[in-house]
C-alpha cells in the first residue's frame, strides 16, 4: 500500500512475465499443444510427401520436369486417371442417392431397432478395404451367390463396393444435421398447401445442401483412395492412381513415375479437401436447430417421404450391406470336403507363402494397432483441443481454421503415398545415422498418421459443443486456466475418447496401403497376409483368406460397436 495526500491506494501488482498480458506458462502450454502435432505431421507426413514430390520435380539437385512430361504423355496414365475419376464419381453418386434416404430414416424418424440399424450401417465404413474387396469378390466370383451375373472383375463390382464402404459417411454426415433441423419451417410450408415433396425440395433440401456437399466431397475422396478394394476387385484392368503407384513401385521399380502419380493425386486430394472444408464450414453456421429428440417422429408409411425412405433403406441394408458380409461368413465355412471349420483351423498354421501363421499376424496387427492408437489419441487430442478454441481476433480464427484443414490432409492423401514416402525419406532421415526402414517403428507411425484425422473429427464436435459460459463461470470462481481446462474441457472430452479410440484402432487394424510397403516379411499384419493368400492359387489359400477376412471384420466391427455406445448423445459427426 502507498499513501498520497492522506489517501491510501493499492500497490501496483507485481509484473508477471507473459505475452500480451497472458501468463508465460499458459503461452508455453498452448505453444506445446500446437508444436507437438505440427512436429509429428511435419516429420511423418509432410517430409515423406515432400520427398515424393522431390522425386518427380528434382533430378541431381536441379528442377527437372521431364518426368512429368514423360509420365503424363503415356496413354496408360490418362486411362488410369480417367478410371479413378469415373469410379470415384459413380461411387459418390451411388452413396449420396442411397445415403440421403437412409439419413432421413435413421436420424429423423423413430422406430424399434433404430439404434441397432445405425450401428450396423456404420460397420462397412470401419471394415478394412481388403476385407471389403474379399467380401464382394466371394459374392460375385464364379460359384458365389451372385456369380451368374458376370460382375466379377468389372467396374460395376468396384462401384458397388465403394458405395458399400461409403454409405455410412453420407448417413452420418447428412443425418447429423438433419436430426437437428427445426421442423417448424417444413411444417409451415405444409400448412400453406405445399405437398410433402415440394416442402422437402424447397425447404429441407436447401438447408441440407452444405452437409450433402461435405459428404459427397469426402466420399469422393475415400472412393479415389480405396486402395485395397480396387486392388482385390479390379487388379490392373480397372486400377486407380493409387493402385498404379503401387504397381509402378513394386513391379516396375519406376520410382519416378510413382512420384509423378503421387503429385497428381495430391492435386485431386487438396481440391476435394478444400471443397469439403468449405461445405463443412457452411454446416456450422447458425441454423434453426433443435435437440434430436424434439425433431424425430415415428415412421408414417402413409407419408410418401417416409415410404420411400423405408423401401430404399431396407433394400440397401439387406441387399448391399448385409448380403456381402453374410456371404463372406458362409463361404468361409465351405471346404472341399463340405461344410466345416477347416479354413479357420488353418489360421494357426503358416501357409506356403507365409513365414508366420494368420493367427500370429493377427497378434502383430493388434499390437501395432494399439501403439498407433495411443499415438493417434495423443496427437489428435491435442489438435482437437487447439482447433476447438474460438479466438476473438480474425487472424486467430484463420490460424485455427488453417490448422484444422492441415490435419485433415492425411485423411485424403493416399496411404500408399505415405508408405512410399517413408521408403524414400526414412533412410537416415535428417542426417541421423539410422535407417528407420529396417525397424518396426514406421508401421505404427504410418497407421497413426492415417488415424489422427479420425480422432480429431470424433473429439472436436464434443469440445465445440461446450458452452463457453461454463469456462467463464469456472474462471469467475477462481479456477486457474489449467484447472478450467482440466475440469471443463478434458472432463467433457473424455466422453468421446471411447469412440475416438474405436475408430482409430479399427483404422489402424485394417490399414493396408502404407503397411503393404513397410511391413517386414517376418512381421506382416493380417491385411497383408490376406492379400498374399489371395495372390496364390489353391482352394486352401483362398479359404484361409476368407476365414482371415471374417476374423478381421469381426475384430474391427466389434471394437467400433462397443465404442459407439460411448458416443455422447446429441453430438453428430463432424466429417
UniProtKB/TrEMBL annotation:
CDD domains reported for this sequence: TM_PBP2
UniProtKB keywords: Cell inner membrane, Cell membrane, Membrane, Transmembrane, Transmembrane helix, Transport
InterPro entries documented for this protein: MetI-like, MetI-like_sf
A GO CC annotation given for this chain: plasma membrane
Location in or out of the cell: Cell inner membrane; Cell membrane
GO aspect biological process, one term: transmembrane transport
Domain ABC transmembrane type-1: 81-276, 362-563
Pfam families, per database record: BPD_transp_1
Domain of life of the native organism: Bacteria
Membrane-traversing stretches: 27-47, 85-105, 117-136, 156-178, 207-235, 255-276, 308-330, 368-387, 399-425, 445-466, 487-509, 542-563
Annotated membrane topology: Multi-pass membrane protein
Family: Belongs to the binding-protein-dependent transport system permease family.
PANTHER family in UniProt: INNER MEMBRANE ABC TRANSPORTER PERMEASE PROTEIN YDCV (PTHR43357:SF4)
Protein's UniProt name: Iron ABC transporter permease
Organism: Cellulomonas shaoxiangyii
Amino acid at each position: 500500500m502507498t499513501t498520497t495526500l492522506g489517501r491510501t491506494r493499492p500497490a501496483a501488482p507485481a509484473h508477471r512475465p507473459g505475452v500480451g498480458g497472458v501468463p508465460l506458462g499458459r503461452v508455453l502450454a498452448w505453444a506445446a499443444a500446437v508444436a507437438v502435432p505440427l512436429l509429428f505431421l511435419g516429420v511423418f507426413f509432410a517430409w515423406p510427401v515432400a520427398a515424393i514430390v522431390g522425386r518427380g520435380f528434382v533430378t541431381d539437385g536441379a528442377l527437372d520436369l521431364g518426368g512429368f512430361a514423360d509420365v503424363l504423355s503415356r496413354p496408360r496414365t490418362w486411362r488410369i486417371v480417367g478410371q479413378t475419376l469415373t469410379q470415384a464419381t459413380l461411387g459418390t453418386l451411388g452413396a449420396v442417392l442411397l445415403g440421403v434416404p437412409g439419413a432421413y430414416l435413421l436420424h429423423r424418424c423413430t422406430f424399434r431397432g433404430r439404434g441397432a440399424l445405425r450401428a450396423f450401417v456404420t460397420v462397412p465404413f470401419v471394415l478394412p478395404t481388403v476385407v471389403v474387396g474379399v467380401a464382394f469378390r466371394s459374392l460375385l466370383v464364379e460359384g458365389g451367390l451372385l456369380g451368374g451375373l458376370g460382375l466379377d472383375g468389372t467396374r460395376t463390382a468396384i462401384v458397388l463396393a465403394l458405395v458399400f464402404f461409403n454409405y455410412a459417411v453420407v448417413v452420418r454426415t447428412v443425418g447429423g444435421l438433419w436430426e437437428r433441423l427445426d421442423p417448424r419451417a417444413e411444417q409451415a410450408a405444409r400448412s400453406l398447401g405445399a405437398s410433402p415433396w415440394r416442402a422437402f425440395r424447397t425447404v429441407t433440401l436447401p438447408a441440407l445442401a452444405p452437409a450433402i456437399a461435405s459428404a459427397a466431397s469426402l466420399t469422393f475422396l475415400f472412393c479415389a483412395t480405396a486402395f485395397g478394394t480396387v486392388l482385390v476387385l479390379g487388379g490392373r484392368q480397372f486400377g486407380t492412381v493409387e493402385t498404379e503407384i503401387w504397381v509402378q513401385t513394386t513391379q516396375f521399380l519406376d520410382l519416378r513415375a510413382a512420384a509423378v502419380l503421387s503429385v497428381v493425386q495430391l492435386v485431386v486430394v487438396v481440391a476435394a479437401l478444400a471443397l469439403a472444408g468449405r461445405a463443412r464450414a457452411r454446416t456450422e453456421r447458425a441454423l434453426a436447430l433443435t435437440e434430436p429428440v424434439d425433431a424425430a417422429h415415428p415412421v408414417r408409411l402413409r407419408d410418401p417421404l417416409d415410404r420411400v425412405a423405408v423401401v430404399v433403406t431396407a433394400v440397401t441394408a439387406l441387399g448391399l450391406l448385409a448380403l456381402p458380409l453374410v456371404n463372406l461368413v458362409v463361404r468361409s465355412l465351405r471346404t472341399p470336403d463340405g461344410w466345416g471349420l477347416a479354413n479357420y483351423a488353418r489360421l494357426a498354421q503358416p501357409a506356403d507363402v507365409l513365414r508366420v501363421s494368420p493367427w500370429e499376424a493377427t497378434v502383430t496387427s493388434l499390437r501395432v494397432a494399439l501403439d498407433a492408437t495411443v499415438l493417434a489419441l495423443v496427437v489428435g487430442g491435442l489438435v482437437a483441443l487447439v482447433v476447438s478454441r474460438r479466438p476473438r481476433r480474425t487472424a486467430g480464427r484463420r490460424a485455427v481454421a488453417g490448422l484444422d484443414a492441415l490435419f485433415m490432409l492425411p485423411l485424403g492423401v493416399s496411404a500408399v503415398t505415405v508408405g512410399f514416402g517413408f521408403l524414400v525419406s526414412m533412410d537416415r532421415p535428417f542426417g541421423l545415422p539410422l535407417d528407420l526402414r529396417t525397424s518396426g517403428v514406421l508401421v505404427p507411425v504410418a497407421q497413426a498418421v492415417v488415424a489422427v484425422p479420425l480422432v480429431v473429427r470424433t473429439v472436436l464436435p464434443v469440445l465445440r459443443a461446450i458452452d463457453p459460459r461454463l469456462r467463464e463461470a469456472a474462471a469467475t470462481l477462481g479456477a486457474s486456466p489449467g484447472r478450467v481446462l482440466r475440469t471443463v474441457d478434458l472432463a467433457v472430452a473424455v466422453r468421446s475418447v471411447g469412440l475416438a479410440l474405436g475408430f482409430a484402432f479399427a483404422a489402424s487394424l485394417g490399414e493396408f496401403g502404407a503397411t503393404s510397403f513397410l511391413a517386414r516379411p517376418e512381421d506382416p499384419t493380417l491385411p497383408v497376409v490376406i492379400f498374399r493368400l489371395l495372390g496364390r492359387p489353391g482352394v486352401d489359400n483362398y479359404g484361409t483368406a476368407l476365414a482371415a477376412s471374417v476374423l478381421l471384420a469381426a475384430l474391427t466391427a466389434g471394437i467400433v460397436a462397443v465404442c459407439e455406445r460411448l458416443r455422447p448423445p446429441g453430438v453428430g459427426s463432424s466429417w
